[in-house]
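Give me a protein, keeping tokens residue-aligned:
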Amino acid sequence: MAMTSSRTAVVTLPTDRQIQITREFAAPRQLVYKAYTTPELIKRWWSGDRGEVTSAEVDLRVGGRWRYVMTANGGFEVAFHGEYREIVPDERLVTTEVYEGAPEGEAVVTHIFAEKDGRTTLTILMELPDRESRDAVINSGMEGGMQESMDHLEQVAISLR
């Protein structure tokens, strides 16, 4: 298993089509889950330090859609959208994810929220159509933004106590 991260969240490549992100938070899972799924809270963390979230739409039900849009610091728009396929509140989400700048590469993303001693481990497994799509995501610079987003997500979750 290749390691691509030395920062707070650990990024691994379990297979040629997968990216796994694991991050521990100093907050209980119901607060991490709430911050992860509530539009007004998503706006506080999703863009990291790279811009401002201008829209966070969440229809949190199986078959419901989600869409996040940010205006990046360079003035351009970045948007992602998908559909909820499975929802177990405070425990598990399975969604699709499409980067609107490359709409041909839909991913299936499983999010697991596990708590131990008041701390939450979030494991995100992204399954992409092929190795080229996986490598394009890895090479996009996504990791730096994701690290910032996860740091902000932790701050938002802690603020909900």
About this structure: The longest helix spans residues 142-159. The chain has one domain: 2-159.
